[in-house]
Amino acid sequence: MIGAAGAVAAGAALTPVVFAATDSDSGSQPEASGTTPEKFPTTRSDAATGAGTATTAFAASYVGVRWAGAQDGAALRLPDGDWRTLSGGCATVDDGGAALVAAGSTTSYEVKAADGTTDVRSLAIDTTDGPQRTFKVPSEPTRVRGVRYQSRPAWGADESKRYKNGVVNSPEKYYALQTITVHHTDTPNDDADPAATVRAIYEYHAVTLDWGDIGYHFLIDEAGTVYEGRYSGDDNVPAFNSDGDLVTAFHTSGYNSGNLGIALLGTLTDQGPTDAAKASLVRLIKVISRFKGLDPQAKVTYTNPVNGVTKDVETVSGHRDWLETDCPGQTMYDLLTEVRATAAR
Fold it and tell me: What is the pTM of this model?
C-alpha cells in the first residue's frame, strides 16, 4: 500500500518518549498538573450566507468565504477597496473554491457570486480583541526532538471548535506516514501577530470549511516558530499517535491520509521565506524523516490507504504537485530542491 514501504519499515516508530519531549529552560513556575494558566482572546466570528453585504458587531481581521461552482466563482470587496476575485489560495475543496482574506479591521464586506455559483457562505473572524479566555499551557517548552514548537494550548486553540452538534466533527484517523507536503497560508507577510493568524486559519478551516479542525499538521511563522496543527490525541505527540501513525488532516484534498502537511505563514509567491522559517522547515522535515525512515530526496508512489488511489510524487513535495493551486507560492516552490537536499544531510 505504501510506495516507500521498505524505507518506512526500516524507520523507528514514533513514541511520546522518542518523538516529543520537553526541556526545562522555562522561567515560569509549573502548576501541579504541569501547566501554567495563560490568557488569549476568545475567537469571535459572524457567519453570513449568500452574496451581498454583510455587517458584523466587531472589527474583523479576516473574512473566510466558501462557495460551490467554479474555482474563481466569487469575489470580495472591503470598504473603500476594489473587488478581489477569490482564487489561488491554499485551501482546496472538492467543488468550488474557498479563500481566507485579510480584512485589516472591518465591520462590513461585500461578496459577489458569478453565474453558476451557489451555496456562498462567509465568516468574519476576530482573533485579537475578544474577551480573554484562560488556557492551560504546558509549563515546560515542548520540543520535537530538539525542534521547539507551540502546542495547541500555547497558541490558544479553542478545542470546542472541533465539535459540531455536541460530537467531534472530524474523528481522528491514523495511517502510516508516506509523504510530506509544503504549503504557504496565502496570508500577509510581515505578520505582527502570527498566533492570531493561526487562530484565524483554525476558525476558517474548522467552521467555514467544516473540516472540524485546522488543516495542517504544523505551521511555521516568519520568526521560525513552529505551531502544532491538527489535533492528534492527548498523548503529547504532535501529528502522530503513540503507535507512530499520522493523524489524517485536510491540507491536500483526496491525498490526505498518510500525508503530513507543513504550512509556512505568509504569501511566498514573489518572495521567499525568512531564513528562520526555512531553517525551522528543514529541521522539522529532517527530524520527521529520520524517525520514520523517509528519504527527503526520494521519489515515491503515494497510495491512499483509504481508496487505493496512487500518485507519483517527491517524498517532500509542494501542494501544487498534488492539485491545481498556486501553493506554496512560486518562490517557495523553487526552493524545495534546496530544502530536500539540506534535510537529507
Answer: 0.91
